[in-house]
Amino acid sequence: MSVIASLGAAGGPVVERLRADLAERAGRIEDALAIADKATPPDYRDFEQVLWHARLMARHGMTDDAVAAARRAIDLAPGRVEPRLALLKIEIDSGRG
Questions:
Q1: Could you tell me which of 16, 14, 77, 20 has the C-alpha nearest to residue 45?
Q2: What whole-number distance in Å separates Cα of residue 89 and Cα of residue 73?
Q3: CA dihedral in degrees (10, 40, 66, 20; nearest 10)?
Q4: 20 to 30 Å CA-CA from 47: which of 12, 28, 41, 85?
Q5: How does DSSP classify residue 78?
Q6: What's the Cα-to-Cα distance from 20 to each of 71, 81, 84, 86, 94, rounded to whole Å?
Q7: Within 10 A of 12 (CB to CB), how many other CB atoms are there?
Q8: pTM for the full model?
Q9: Greatest CA span in the chain, whole angstroms?
Q10: In b/e form, how buried is each residue of 66-94, taking b as 16+ CB within 10 angstroms?
Q11: Alpha-carbon torsion 46, 43, 54, 32, what sign?
């Protein structure tokens, strides 16, 4: 049994990020996105988690969803620059910026 599996739900969002990242690296993109969607529901309040989700979606062509998530992160952390930079990068990488 892997260490991640042995944690079950105890690890919370950090473990879910690891699971999604491992799935992405293994080429299981749909699994990675499903894990990320479940770990980052629409009412999630941690801007860093929301940004991670936005970046994952952006890497896999889900630009509209990624932009929406980055804007949500801006709303969650209006005094932080990271969400604004992430939104800018997503828009530039997608050809919108």
A1: 77
A2: 14
A3: 30
A4: 28
A5: T
A6: 22, 25, 24, 19, 22
A7: 11
A8: 0.87
A9: 45
A10: bbbbbbbbbebbeeeeebeebbebbbeee
A11: positive
Residues 27-64, buried b or exposed e (16+ Cβ, 10 A)? eeeeebbebbeebbeeeeeebebbbbbbbbbbeeebbe
- Two structure tokens written together for 13: 């969002």
Amino acid identity, residue 11? G
Look up residue 30 and give its amino acid. Answer: E
Residue with tokens 């952390």: 77
| Spacing of C-alpha 84 from chain mean position | 15
Among 24, 15, 11, smallest CA distance to 55 is for 24
Average pLDDT per consecutive 10 residues, the chain (97 residues; last block may be shorter): 57 86 96 96 94 97 97 97 97 87
